[in-house]
Amino acid sequence: MAENLQYYIDKLNKLNFKDMYEGNFFLTWEKTDDELAAVFTLADALRYLRSNNISTKIFDSGLGVSLFRDNSTRTRFSFASACNLLGLEVQDLDEGKSQIAHGETVRETANMISFMADVIGIRDDMYIGKGNAYMHTVVDAVTEGYREGVLEQKPTLVNLQCDIDHPTQCMADMAHIIHTFGGVEQLKGKKIAMSWAYSPSYGKPLSVPQGVIGLMTRFGMDVVLAHPEGYEVMPEVEDVDLKQAKKSGGSFSKTNSMAEAFKDADIVYPKSWAPFAAMEKRTKLYGDGDTEGIAKLEKELLAQNAEHKDWCCTEELMKTTKDGKALYLHCLPADINGVSCKDGEVEASVFDRYRVPLYKEASFKPYIIAAMIFLAKEKDPQAVLKALEEKAVKRHFE
Amino acid sequence: MAENLQYYIDKLNKLNFKDMYEGNFFLTWEKTDDELAAVFTLADALRYLRSNNISTKIFDSGLGVSLFRDNSTRTRFSFASACNLLGLEVQDLDEGKSQIAHGETVRETANMISFMADVIGIRDDMYIGKGNAYMHTVVDAVTEGYREGVLEQKPTLVNLQCDIDHPTQCMADMAHIIHTFGGVEQLKGKKIAMSWAYSPSYGKPLSVPQGVIGLMTRFGMDVVLAHPEGYEVMPEVEDVDLKQAKKSGGSFSKTNSMAEAFKDADIVYPKSWAPFAAMEKRTKLYGDGDTEGIAKLEKELLAQNAEHKDWCCTEELMKTTKDGKALYLHCLPADINGVSCKDGEVEASVFDRYRVPLYKEASFKPYIIAAMIFLAKEKDPQAVLKALEEKAVKRHFE
Amino acid sequence: MAENLQYYIDKLNKLNFKDMYEGNFFLTWEKTDDELAAVFTLADALRYLRSNNISTKIFDSGLGVSLFRDNSTRTRFSFASACNLLGLEVQDLDEGKSQIAHGETVRETANMISFMADVIGIRDDMYIGKGNAYMHTVVDAVTEGYREGVLEQKPTLVNLQCDIDHPTQCMADMAHIIHTFGGVEQLKGKKIAMSWAYSPSYGKPLSVPQGVIGLMTRFGMDVVLAHPEGYEVMPEVEDVDLKQAKKSGGSFSKTNSMAEAFKDADIVYPKSWAPFAAMEKRTKLYGDGDTEGIAKLEKELLAQNAEHKDWCCTEELMKTTKDGKALYLHCLPADINGVSCKDGEVEASVFDRYRVPLYKEASFKPYIIAAMIFLAKEKDPQAVLKALEEKAVKRHFE
Questions:
Q1: Minimal CA separation from C249 to chain B, in Å
Q2: How far apart are CA A245 and CA B194, in angstroms?
Q3: Does the ipTM surpass 0.90?
Q4: Cβ contacts (< 8 Å) between B104 and chain C: which residues?
Q5: Is residue C397, in this structure, part of any structural domain at all?
Q6: Which residues in chain A have their CB less than 8 angstroms from residue C379's CB?
Q7: Parent domain of B20
Q8: Which chains touch C (3 or more CB pairs under 8 A)?
Q9: What is the Cα–Cα distance from A197 to A228, expressed in whole angstroms?
Q10: Is residue A315 part of a domain?
Q11: Under a CB-based contact definition with an 8 Å cutoff, are residues C8 and C44 in contact?
Q12: How many domains does chain B have?
């Protein structure tokens, strides 16, 4: 952590992020390098203020609406924490796991829940081609509502995980990397392995690996995506990655060997996910209400998974990484051998060695979310940060 | 919106609403004209302040307890928004859809949840003869609790929909009418049609039509209630309407023809509801736990409904209204032909033309609820409004 | 209530409770007499400030996380009220009634929900040997998280009911006794009967009777525990009670006769609970997933209970208490004859005579919880109280 707030303000002063004001956060690759840097910097500034017991409330009242299509303790608490940090009260809208009706209903509901909403956080990652599209429908609806005088303010959207990207997770992962390696400028030439790993459950979202390679290819690193044959991610994301890697002076490559990916890696991110093609199929089956087909697909996928139990982050594999000490990442919860399952993504001794760093990785998320909201809500974030420091309202009065 | 806050304060100064202080809000027809006017004016004043980024928090801490007997996204968010606007944190009490035990249990629970409660919002519309009575039991219990020193403050009750009235909805509808027609004094002689309309679902609450005619008959309008034979509302409410219409210089009439009701109407409110007699029967069946009887009744009601599919707000009918441009109202969500159902309450093109105005109609509700709370909590609301403006705490610090 | 805040500050000045700072609250018998006195005094001071419309918010933002293993309206609202009183927003973590996984998962979840948490309130009373242990695991995890820089603050734990003790309930009961008898110094030599009573349900937690005798034996009272044979509580708690009673100059005795316990009692607390041995057995059956065994045990326990329907707090029994006017206590809700059940813990006329006092008894709980948090969070509580009075921010702006 820096010694004073001015350090962060100086950093922000060098960045161009004016288009974030009154904007939304859908995908990291829709943002410029400067915009992402602004999020990282502001997240650190907010943490600096909080750890110095200075209130960061920029709202005296107002709601943060969360809309989760799936059970979620961690994301829900991260979002609630971010809102609380800025002075917003959370109201959860629980729509269940069903595929929501589109068009009229979404537009209407979006407005009905937004009369006092300054931010809407949505997690909708289960159906390919649906989650991100749904978020856009919501944003279009509230933007119209604001323009037409239905809403007194336009809520900003924060993507808390969609079918394509998981920006708050990956930005938190990246903040952890930056802090671990001592600055974003230290990352050029580093090797990061985003690798599939075996899990006894199936159908884990693709948005984590896609988000990771979609973000990590922007910092001059050598990004390797490893998975067994058949576990491909969305091709559109890979196209983005290739362009970004080239532009940043790094590389993006693929392999079907976990060993190859781990070899000399500085950072490893072994995690299970479902094949893109299977997820597309599942989305269609759900759309058709074909429960028999869904059950059959699940069985096939579990059988397919079981062929790759050797894709595990073992001590042996870790030894092959850079100095045997690659930074191990995970979005949590991980499937740990002999702890949460018999065979899983990682050996218990590896996980345990990185337990505290993993918790730190997660601890960045509330600040990342808060930073995204802050940048969408404040025309001059530097001035507001300065004013917060000068007002010096104590977060905890003691 | 007025140019300054003084406009609203001047309006309030001409009204007598002193009995609202420390009171509750059950039914609109239990309030005087001045008291209703105070709610409308204060709602506008709060919206004025918020749209000028001035905090309207009159509570530094305190709870708003919501008690819903039914799933409710819209009402829940409206209540949460109103509480947040005034500085109260919402705590939801979910008692399920069951008919709650009365007497001892209600009195006890009412006090146990109210130690820090400044407001209790209740929605209990499912059972005839129960909802409103339940609210009175709660109010009596907390009033006694306050008097006896159990509670440090007496929570005010806001009726968020009972078996008889839906005051926050109808007051929001009325606020929308007032704003659309340019003032309450413009309403004399206007014709409003509260009409039954077909819906593929059954058992929609009577409190909306009853609330609408119970409120709209107070402004000198010609109020027409239209429904097929057998879809009568509570006779007690009709008695109130006749008296109110006479007193206000308007009229209240009934017809079994939707066409007759729509003819030359300035405002139309086509909406499905269940017959009062059937709802009474259902309440008894639920009381007896007669699930077979309930299923049979449902079947009968759906069959009865299906005979009246022609009760739809069509383009053709809309053309017969005043200049073909009557203001279309609905409490939302509506059953829209070809959108949310095959045959429903309204044709899609009609609904779509009024979509933004319908959202605006809904947007008044949080302010109406907040105004009801404000008037129950502040002895001198004008002075508090003035003080809020002078303090000028920014809602959003920017 | 005292005439001024200084009264409470003077009382606090005479007590040594410095070890409560940055501590947790698990069991009352782990606290010194001075520490318990500090909780009672601070609870009163907070109530004094609130009733004088002075804000007691010591947090500008921050979360209070509640973790309930069981449905709970009352405890949930008490905790929410306490958090709100101090400026914390509540976030509920619902883990269902299942026995939660231990070790890794608990440590991880504890940290993931605590990034902005200043307090964690846990209720986990269903399984013998589990609830209190679980709370310790959570505290150990967040303490490590704080030390390692994962968390910016260490959340304090408040035990909202475990398998051993129910400190917030019993402290509220005791606050009620103190206020009723005019001070803790009036309690020496008073007789209190903690008695089993019949209830048509089974398996009510042992933590209430254990908590009551575990606390009440510290004030020089004659504490009598009465229950039918076979309804023993945890022997470890009885050991504690004997020592405490001796030290305080009172006594602790047991009887299998309700009449003997009530004879000349100043205070009676008749309440159902399950036999300790049966609860141990049930815990094992749940652990084994033996649903058949659980059903069989339930049947046995209900039959066993039914043999003791005569264990009821009747008017006749009440007449045998001191001047026929013993203070009747209950943690609520009670099983009332002819009201909530046919045969229960207490006759309706007895309950009704004590209804208002029972509500008052309950009303202390939010303040007791708030006091526990306050003492864990403030190094110099007296100075903070004084500062709050001087700042004199109005809780309700009027």
A1: 33
A2: 64
A3: yes
A4: 336, 339-340
A5: no
A6: 398
A7: 5-164+364-391
A8: A, B
A9: 9
A10: yes
A11: yes
A12: 2
